[in-house]
Design a protein that fits this description.
With about 270 residues, the chain is α/β, with parallel strands linked by helices. It has one domain: Rossmann fold (3-Layer(aba) Sandwich), CATH 3.40.50. Strand 4, helix 6 and strand 5 form a beta-alpha-beta unit. Helix 1 runs antiparallel to helix 3 and helix 3 packs parallel to helix 4.
Length: about 270
């Protein structure tokens, strides 16, 4: 796992070096500003998030492999196509996996009219051969499945040796753990969902206990370490000087917000 001040020979330092240069306070502020458009202008928000994600993945790839993006990215929970455009523009062959057809067609531009290939399937049982993709990405999906580390195991299975499996998820005790219910999740997920329903007249999109689960930073780090493939772990949206938070038990659960696990199958 990457920590500040490690030697250049550390694969975690090598992997994250390029992206760390982009992880500035200005970037963090910009992404936080875009978040307010998630509901009113999803194309703006998810387009910005997709571009930032494609840049992160490309930087991690270049850091470890020393070359430009190439090969296939398998994106679990790819949604309606914003990520397909960003990854294709960055030079990747994009394959999106999405179990919910409503999510596939949630954007103004149907997935069938844009770049990339889309497959309707579950991330817990990927219909791909072992070692068949160069990069397997899961962005903000693990907190929505009851077995997040089964998802992680599937990601490692389909990623070729020397490729990258990148699992990024929202930490439950962080400020965004409750998703649209806001920070009321600190009083309990069920209570936060009930409050949201009373205020809005309908339940939240993410149903606590069925499509939203409590996933901790500690659990993710423990699982990743057991795989023997962990290369790096860092807070996705934080500036580089705050990445040390990942190393502090307890504190990381509240302040990391979104944890990125970078794994490289041997």
């Amino acid at each position: 796992m990457i920590t500040g001040g490690q030697e250049r020979s550390d694969p975690g330092k090598i992997a994250t070096d390029l992206f760390a240069r982009r992880a500035t306070l200005a970037r963090s502020t910009r992404l936080l500003g875009e978040f307010r458009y998630e509901q009113s202008d999803p194309a703006r928000f998810y387009g910005a998030l997709a571009e930032d994600t494609a840049t992160m993945v490309s930087d991690l790839w270049a850091g470890l492999n020393g070359d430009r993006p190439r090969g296939t990215v398998l994106d679990i929970g790819g949604g309606p196509g914003y990520f397909a455009t960003a990854f294709t523009d960055a030079g990747w062959r994009y394959v999106g996996v999405e179990p919910d057809p409503r999510e596939m067609h949630a954007a103004e531009q149907p997935v069938s009219g844009g770049p990339g290939t889309f497959v309707r399937a579950s991330g817990l049982a990927l219909p791909f051969a072992d070692g068949s993709v160069d990069v397997c990405l899961s962005s903000n999906v693990a907190e929505h499945v009851a077995q997040p580390w089964r998802l992680g195991a599937e990601m490692l299975r389909v990623t070729r040796p020397g490729g990258l499996a990148i699992l990024s998820y929202t930490v439950w005790l962080g400020p965004f753990g409750g998703h649209e219910t806001g920070m009321w999740h600190y009083l309990g997920g069920a209570r936060a969902a009930a409050r949201y329903t009373r205020r809005h007249g309908h339940p939240p999109k993410n149903h606590y206990g069925s499509s939203l689960f409590e996933v901790s930073a500690a659990d993710g780090l423990r699982w990743a370490a057991r795989t023997g493939a962990l290369v790096a772990a860092f807070p996705r949206y934080h500036p580089r000087w705050a990445w040390w938070l990942t190393r502090v038990p307890g504190v990381r659960e509240f302040l990391v917000s979104n944890l990125v696990l970078v794994l490289r199958p041997g």
